Request: fold
Amino acid sequence: MDIPSTTNGYPVTSIGDAAFSNKVSVTSVTIPDGVTNIGNSAFSYCTSLASVTIPDSVTSIGASASAVCRGLTNLTIGNSVTSIGSSAFLTCTKLGSVTIPSSVTNIGNMAFGACARLTAIVVNSQNSFYSTVNGVLFNKSQTVLIQYAAGFCRFDFGYYHTPRTRPLIRKLPFGFSSCPGSWQASLTHRKRAPKRAPKRALSVFRRVGDSRS
Reply:
């Protein structure tokens, strides 16, 4: 689907909230240069959508913009995007990797949550707000863990150990919520996951509906 750059002689500068939500026949989207904003839930539940290219003119991606696009495998985020809303790409279960450009200053909670095959969140090294370590999203100083790539849940045997380079001060509440409720994470600096959970391991994975902190 090609979104026109003009309509009735006027330039298209924004894609409205829920503009294409639940359009299950859409398989790809081409957004024209000139669009600066993608609204909330603009492409949510487009379950056949496999490819989205966000041009450099876009600065804001709304909450749940492409949530539950289970067929999405190819995502390109333009180099002018500054904000990625909460749950923007939630449950894009076939998405394997995503690259965050240097322009991004804000990433909402669960922006890439429940992406079951996601094993690489890559951040441009020139980004002043975010960084990654082995595909896991942190703040720039790597003192706050923001999003664990859900694809790792299949391989890491129920444990994640933070990088040795810096002390982890805290995690965001939804940083690990994409993984099974039985998961635990040790906020210590170990090279290998232990066979059994350490006594002080911090359980950071909660099942849906679990309100414990």
User: Anything to note?
Assistant: The domain at 1-118 is CATH 3.80.10.10 (Leucine-rich repeat, LRR (right-handed beta-alpha superhelix)). The longest strand covers residues 97-100. DSSP finds no helices and 16 strands in the chain. The radius of gyration is 18 Å.
